[in-house]
Amino acid sequence: MVKFIFSSFTVLVLTLAVVKAQNTPIVVSQYPKINEVPPVNSPEVIAWLKEIDLTGAPTIPLHTGNPPACPNPPIANECYWTCDGCAADDITACAAPNTWGLTFDDGPSTATPTLLDYLKTKKHSATFFLIGSNVIQYPETVKRELAEGHHLASHTWSHHALTTLSNEQIVAEMKWTEKAVLAATGLKLKYMRPPYGDINNRVRFVLKKLGYIPVDWTGDAFDTNDWQMPTMSEATVIATFTKSLDAYAKGDKSKGFYCLEHDLNSLTVGAAQKLIPLGEARNISIANVAQCQSDAQPYQAGGTAPMPTVSGATPKTSGTPSGSSAAPSTTGTGTGSASNKSSSAMTLQAGLVSAGLAALAAVALA
Asked: Which residues belong to the signal peptide in this entry (predicted)?
């Protein structure tokens, strides 16, 4: 199984980023109410709205419900992923062949550190789609995610279905989360996942104005259904996802897939520790979104911390991703690739680890 590793330069710069970010304390009282859609008349949101032009946004009626029911009949030209299966230019599959794009939604939570401990032992890097309301409650966990080589992305402020919100409310949901993560890490998010996968052309328009790239998952087969526990048993979750992995392993595997998993509670985290070995046993590589998309700059410009330099994963000729990567970087939408690490580079990396950067660098051999 191919693993991903940091370059020594990435580790050093990332260390600086985390240290600098720690100088910006999060004061919960300065943020909107937890798990509620932020008001759009606050000074912060008014200022954010002045920075973008929402003129020309598609006129599509707001849906109702959380999550909303599918409109009947469907709305013309809506391109509603949840109900129509229309993804437009959302990212729906890992671009690297034979690769599981490992993602976790809804955190951070009190269960997230257990998941981080596990991923550290396995030397895997994941993308965490963060809820802003949780970021301000557990900023140290977010800092740890970044320090241990994981990729951070947005899952909105309150986890409300975005097609039910006005354009201005979507801006508030995204920017408050962005502000919280910026305070915790010094980095400005670039990727996002809509709660419930609830996205249409109007929502996409607003997200793109804010510089965000939506990442869905690769269809129902790759929804682990961990969110249904305990109503659904863990055994059923594992059995169902095993079938999906078997079907994928028997296919051409020219593209990877993104799963839907959660670091919401001990049940979902416990399930993840049983699901990941199933992919390993089928020789499926595991990577985060930045690695999957070979994005060397998976954060937006405008952060307060030094931009970590991260090489995107470069697929080998045999069809498996390799090279250096793990922790994210910043700037617009550029992409990059990594050369394979030589044995001497690995030796240098190991030396850095022994020098005191073990908390940040994960060196793995095939």
From this structure: 1-21
